[in-house]
Specification:
Helices cover 29% and strands 29% of the residues. It has helices at residues 26-37, 68-78, 92-100, 109-115, 118-129, 142-152, 178-188, 250-267, 300-303, 310-319, 359-362, 394-407, and strands at 18-22, 41-46, 59-62, 82-85, 136-139, 156-160, 169-172, 196-200, 206-216, 222-226, 230-235, 238-244, 271-280, 283-290, 326-328, 331-333, 340-346, 351-352, 355-357, 368-372, 377-378, 383-390, 409-411, 418-419. The two termini are 41 Å apart. One of its GO terms (molecular function) is ATP binding.
Amino acid sequence: MIKPRDELGTAMTDSAQKILLLGSGELGKEIAIEAQRLGVEVIAVDRYANAPAMQIAHRAYVGDMKNADFLFSVVEREKPDAIIPEIEAINLDALFELEKDGYFVVPNAKATWIAMHRERLRETLVKEAKVPTSRYAYATTLDELYDVCEKIGYPCHTKAIMSSSGKGSYFVKGPEDIPKAWEEAKKKARGSADKIIVEEHIEFDVEITELAVRHYDENGDIVTTFPKPVGHYQIDGDYHASWQPAEISERAEREVYRIAKRITDVLGGLGLFGVEMFVKGDKVWANEVSPRPHDTGMVTLASHPTGFSEFGLHLRAVLGLPIPGEWVDGYRLFPMLTPAATHVIKASVSGYSPRFRGLAKALSVPNATIRLFGKPEAYPGRRLGVAIAWDKSVSDAKKRAEMVAHAVELRTRTSTWQRQDV
């Protein structure tokens, strides 16, 4: 693991600090941007060429990250100071081997292994972190799925053991939905599909993400700093809009910090964790954890000071640099600059070389902007960008972000102009 640091080198020289991104999507791109600002050398890896982070990295490699030999060959050639997984489709055994060989896997290989598998994660939350979650059970056959859904009660949620962004998940309203839920989990899992988790449906007020970051403080001790919780909502299991701060009670906010601290202490390592939770009144339930920046956390590009978005916080932690914070009621908090919100820009058509129009209208909205990710291919539902807005209140920021997102239209080589389905 990286030690506390008081100096940085220069990219492309023998003094450089190197980070290796395993996955080069929009989150990896923002990490790379922060790294470039600090003179850190960036190597980007993904399954396809010209992925977003590759477009600004110093070097890039294309290959199957589930292939251990491919990963070993890249790491051996580059010898990075930190290996940063950004997606789920990675050979986890290879990460353990690389860690044994002395490489720093962010936050650590075990945390990555746990978080990428829903059964391992849920058991860790309940049995080790001892935090509240929804009721749950597992099924390995269609008949078992009928029995488990009956036991948990309707409505409920079924999810593939390994998946993300809502893929392989289904909202089961009654027994008639179970065959479809089974099919979704089997076809759209990312990785193992041999087991399905069934989760109780909680009628929450809001779903939030706590962007807890474990890092060295000014004294060289590992501490956890908590930005304000991020509220968000999903459509078909995928993030659609987010805002900061989440509109929850002070008591619920303290419970969010308590739960996130227990979880991240168990997972360990250095870096930022996206801890997803449900909030109803003063009650909070842990749901899932990403051991890396979270898509809902893109709101921090506006709500936090320059250099301290979730990506800047993650990079500082990974490099062993301190992060400012203030102790309040036993928790170390990171100050927010302004209320802000995001709204996704998704494709509703398929094709290559996406082009965007409507920008004159979109970019004329005060206190708002867009991030276009640079993905070379579009297909229905794929996230191609995000609108970001800030204002004196969360509600006004939400309106601005939605207005900007709706103004953007997409064109590809194989389609005509079509307004985004946002």
